[in-house]
Predict the structure.
Amino acid sequence: MKRSRFLPCGVSVLVVLGLLSGCSRGPSEEDLAREKLEGQLETMQQQYQDLQQARADIATAEATLAEIEAMRERDRSDEQKAQLEELPAQIEALTLTKDEAFDELQANLADFLNVALNDFPEHPATLQGLNIYADEAILIADETVRMAGDYKKAISQLDSASRYYESLGLPPYQPLVDKLAYLDEMRFITKERFDLVKKKMTMDEVKATIGTPYYQNIQVDEKRGVETWLYRKREGGAAAVHFKTKDKKVYNTNFDAVKTKVVE
């Protein structure tokens, strides 16, 4: 009877010792790499939130400055006059903070994705990090269009981001799909959109209506005091919007201004 009682205890002890021996070896290299990846994601998520907040702060400051500048000087309160003096420096400081946050996030994203895409393609953190990358790519594409009217380059930037999803067998990221469709549409002018441009529109109003022209398709005739923006058509040729350089407003439009190919 005594033996029958001790035998199970002996087995139990051996099992416990085995478990303790297994624990003493600690986590595997893969486990440690996975934990590091998850920690990197948390850091990036916080950096992304900080970057978004910096962008929002800049937008608020710029909107306030524009509102005050649009007012007549005599209508400005003392507080608004003080803001008029202070806001440019604040915006400059906020922009510096934003740029530093952007560079830091991009560097961490590159390190993260280099490991995540190759070693942990199916880990949920990989998709979350890839979505942050795609969201930033969309903002960069928008800036490329805003600054240079280079829709072709912007589309290429987003195509690169889309291929990451394809390489992992993931469904397309809808914000990327939507932005690519929008850029492809805006890349070429249509008669319907062009007809929305009216005389006396400002340059900013034209950009908001039919998009930013490619920078090499902007022509300035100083002698005539005319600036012309050419918008490519999908079928070839280009439409033209003409501004008087004196007031920067539309004075004429011509949908069939150019029959031959223009710079892309």
Notes: The two ends are 94 Å apart (CA to CA). The first strand starts at residue 218 and ends at 221. The chain has a mean pLDDT of 90. The chain is about 65% helix and 10% strand.
